[in-house]
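User: Show me sequence and structure for the first protein, then do the same for the second.

Assistant: Starting with the first protein.
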Amino acid sequence: MATPPTPPLGNLLRLHPLSLADLPSHPSLTNLPSTNGSSSSAPKPPPRPSLPTFLTALLSEATTFIDHTLPSTFTVASTSKRSPPATSAVTLLKHTYPPSTLAAIPWHAFPVPRSPPPGGLAAEAWFARRSRHADAAAAGTASWAEFDAGLRAQHSEHERQYTPDVYAAARVLDWDADADTAAAARDLRARGFEHASLRLYEMCHRLPFPLRPRVFAVAVATARTLAPGGEGAGEGLVVVQVPVDVRGWPRAGYTNGGNVREGGGVQARRCVVGRYASVERVRRGVGGEIEWVMGTASDAGGWLPMWAQKMGVPGAVVKDVGLFVGWVGGRRGGA
């Protein structure tokens, strides 16, 4: 039987950041500063997408990437990485999208149309991991309920808690009230998602001395994915984070220096602006196992060369499995 073609890449799960004008309407997103030097005579941007349109587009692109694009295009780098205290072996994968592939994306032909940067696109180096865990609230693993509560619910706050290098998770905006409406829930459920949320965060990371801390502004979308066969088998969740350009917007304090003050420690240091995109997909299988797949691409910015960044990302991607499992064990009172 012929192998099905790999779905085309989307325009949202990219390192090229969204502009604030690409986001759904929000009371705080009016009279925004221009970050691209455009004049008052420049053409008006297209209308903002509705929240269900934006969430459906982003969540669908993320699940397609994990379910179809990653298995057909990524190369396995290792199948036996360990990340204690997690007992599961971790498979590490990688793939680089060259500028020519990214330029061929039909950026304007999606439900949330975007424009590629006028200066061209840089290559995206993606790293991914896959691990399978016993569905149990026990040492070395986590139950489905613990995965859902730890990764989907309050994702960014929990990431700060279990990741030592993340020292701040600052919520800038949320669309919680809009996502909870009956109309939005109905539209999203028709596309296979429920309990969806969209929030904008600034995630702040320590780097080794003498490097300055980094801030990553990301739109964070989370949802449960509906089981095609009913409750149980096939149950899943998805978390996707994409970069947003918040430069010049005072509400984004870490990006624009609003946090800087003397004698305040790392929380008060001026940050270098970086970018990352990531997607996590957790699925509950029939055989009592939970599959956790994650992929990410990043650019830490500053003078740190990309070749040096690429050396550190694979280890960090694998390490996150143990950090999460250890954090979950601590929360239940026995690692």
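Switching to the second protein now.
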Amino acid sequence: MSETLLSILCGQDGWHWLDNTNTITFNKNGTGELVCRYELIVWIAAEFEWKPQSPESLDQVVDVSGIGPTRKDPPQPISQFDIELTLAKRRIPSMRGPDAQRRRMNESLLTDDAFLPKTYTVRLERGNFLTPYDAMLPPEKEDQYHPRFALRLVFDKSPYPPQHEWKEPGMGPDATKMWEWKEFVGRESADLKMRADRHAWWKDCVVS
């Protein structure tokens, strides 16, 4: 299946580090959303503006077929491109209600430097991926209970602000270290999950 890089980048319902709680979303109109939270704690729920450094780079048509059957297969690089991303202080729509307004996030927790334009080199890969969070689980648990994704974005540096751009990093961010998160997965695939389940079933049969 062939698609433009732009349609792939913006065609996902968010790119995930962990399910829907830590995501980055790109829209074709040059806007996007960055979310970082843990349970009821929300550090970032901000809109951003973005643009490719070379607009024609996202017009490239690529083939995203041929996904590997197991996570042991190495990821296949599709393309690499540079973008400029500027985090805004505006909250995402779901965080603008009266209850959410009482929460401290975005500019309440970040310094002004966090909202300056930054340039990123992004690599798009295809394969059989868990979320980066789930990938840290023991191998005996990962295949049976967690969704699989066909695509992955790898940033040269995290889109989350670095430690020195937090006003009080010791209040939670230092423990989470979200500034180390550089990989986000997209395009959840039931077919890849089914293959992973079959792989786990076969492995259990061999062991037993």
